[in-house]
Amino acid sequence: MAERCVLLLGEGNFSFAAALCGAVGGRVVATCYEREEEVAARRRAAESIRRLRERGAEVLFSVDCTKLKDYFLPSKRKFDCIYFNFPHCGRKAGVVKNRELLARFFHSCAEVLMQDGEVCVALCRGQGGTPADQPRREWHNSWQVVALAAGAGFILSDVHPFRAEAAHGYECTGYRSQDKFFCTEGALNHIFTRSTPPLYCKPLICEIELESRRISFQVPRVLVDKISRGFLELNSNHPVRTIKEKFTAVLSQAFPLQSIDYCLSLLLQGCLSAGCHSNIFWVLLSPEETPSAEEMASGRANAILFFHVDFHGDMDENVQGRCQTPKQCYLRPSLLPYAQAIIKSAAFVPGTLYVFSGPVFRKCRVSPYCMPVFHEMVFVYAVSRGSENSCIQMVVDKIKTSIHSLHQSISDSKLSISLQEATSLGTAELSDFAAFESQLGKIQFFLCMKTDTWDSSEKGFCVGVVRTTPYESAGSDLVVVFASLNLDLVAMLICAIDDWRMLWTSDARFLRQFPAGELRLFKSFSLYPPSYVHDVSFWLPDGEQFDDVAFHTIAREVSGEAVACIHLLDSFQQPGTGRNSVCYRLTFQSCDRALSRKEVAAMQLRFREEISKRLRVALR
């Protein structure tokens, strides 16, 4: 194991550095801002400096924490941990001055910290401005430490009480730049780590074979980093795959089972019910615009994914048309068409449980549990008429058993699963997931989950639906049961993940919490992320229906999913003209990476430009 390199800043009398030096192996560099002769006059300073030097530590004076790279050669600049206890500009400096100090300090740390290093900042009670502070100051009166760190690319990964007594021999000093004690009761240690950098995804082109023709299409911007993540592949330890495999294993013990995960096209074509159109990711196919070899070589096509589109079987004509030269298709919003296709094929065997799984894509409103892409699992089973309810109950019972088994292995919290008749839920109670499913066809039951760790309605979150339909075969007395599950929502509820975006993070710290596919309660590596509020007001176009889902989708695109909440603040109709104006509030907050005020300001400006251009609204 490599020795750790530790840097201590702003030491008053070096007593903390001396206490730490005995417990840390490796290189220790202890520094202070004052000159050596100033420090030497302080109590305990000379003794602490002597102890440090005896143990091989480096002791430096007159070190400015905002210019750290200036004090170390390039080969000596990479520290594993940087400590800064109770930073302060000195004397009676106010909140604003100390914020400026912290902001410049974090930027300086970024230049000398190892990629997986830590920055430890101890602050007095209430200064940090996070919910961990008790009592908590008003935000404007705090040092806003998490937001300042975010400006330099850091996230708060841990916070715990500062235990002065744990550092044997430590004496705090420096109150108002004097050799005086100050109170550390209620002080907190804030542990910051580097954030993954912002994703700047280039346009992505997918190339497919459709009816023996080679066709390309551009992936919608909001899906570029999600369309080919491979969470369900064999080498994946993602929790959605673990849950999928658990369902498959339990159901295979009760039914003959055939899993069909291959050759499921990302694209569908044809007509949809009228209510679905605003939720669909439409793509324009361009057979004549396939990038040339020269464009590919030069990178002008940016990126290409290859897919083979194999529309096997006779799909429902309402879901897939039989166009010979399609010009417009859409990314699959459901795996239901493939389930409908299998029951019409000659290979279909009643009494066998067919299982489909894969990502599906739907435009939706911004919320912590409403996702534009998720992994769906569909079960198809044909039974004799009159026994469909017992079949539904058996399938649901097996799903319940699987979920309870997974949940009880990692948590003592209460989890309940219920099958709700579709008629018992009003339209207002339906989530975006359930509402869209209702547009795909009649639903008999909703499968709902509720846990103590999530706020939800009395009936819980809808994570699945169950449908039945007659088996269309001459002389048949069979009924086909279709059950569909949102695996992402199930994973969130079992593992206590409170934001769907965390399932799709590129930060390796997420998957490290689920080694070899083992489910665990998720512990966030980004605590108390800063949020920023921006309002936007505009006049609606005359005579046109405002597309609320498109509005939310544009917010997702321009922010890289950094918008956590959108809500309508106000609406207004101008007397005389009848023109309608609305005002929306957007809350920007990232659950997994640093998000700075400057980044958000740029996102808001771009958002205003995009809605003006694409939704034809008049900004106010």
UniProtKB/TrEMBL annotation:
<keyword id="KW-0067">ATP-binding</keyword>
<keyword id="KW-0547">Nucleotide-binding</keyword>
<dbReference type="GO" id="GO:0005759">
    <property type="term" value="C:mitochondrial matrix"/>
</dbReference>
<dbReference type="InterPro" id="IPR005121">
    <property type="entry name" value="Fdx_antiC-bd"/>
</dbReference>
<dbReference type="InterPro" id="IPR019446">
    <property type="entry name" value="BMT5-like"/>
</dbReference>
<comment type="similarity">
    <text>Belongs to the class-II aminoacyl-tRNA synthetase family.</text>
</comment>
<dbReference type="GO" id="GO:0070042">
    <property type="term" value="F:rRNA (uridine-N3-)-methyltransferase activity"/>
</dbReference>
<keyword id="KW-0809">Transit peptide</keyword>
<dbReference type="GO" id="GO:0005524">
    <property type="term" value="F:ATP binding"/>
</dbReference>
<dbReference type="GO" id="GO:0070475">
    <property type="term" value="P:rRNA base methylation"/>
</dbReference>
<dbReference type="InterPro" id="IPR036690">
    <property type="entry name" value="Fdx_antiC-bd_sf"/>
</dbReference>
<keyword id="KW-0648">Protein biosynthesis</keyword>
<keyword id="KW-0436">Ligase</keyword>
<keyword id="KW-0030">Aminoacyl-tRNA synthetase</keyword>
<dbReference type="InterPro" id="IPR045864">
    <property type="entry name" value="aa-tRNA-synth_II/BPL/LPL"/>
</dbReference>
<dbReference type="Pfam" id="PF03147">
    <property type="entry name" value="FDX-ACB"/>
</dbReference>
<protein>
    <recommendedName>
        <fullName>phenylalanine--tRNA ligase</fullName>
        <ecNumber>6.1.1.20</ecNumber>
    </recommendedName>
</protein>
<dbReference type="Pfam" id="PF10354">
    <property type="entry name" value="BMT5-like"/>
</dbReference>
<dbReference type="GO" id="GO:0004826">
    <property type="term" value="F:phenylalanine-tRNA ligase activity"/>
</dbReference>
<dbReference type="InterPro" id="IPR029063">
    <property type="entry name" value="SAM-dependent_MTases_sf"/>
</dbReference>
<feature type="domain" description="FDX-ACB">
    <location>
        <begin position="527"/>
        <end position="620"/>
    </location>
</feature>
<dbReference type="GO" id="GO:0006412">
    <property type="term" value="P:translation"/>
</dbReference>
<keyword id="KW-0496">Mitochondrion</keyword>
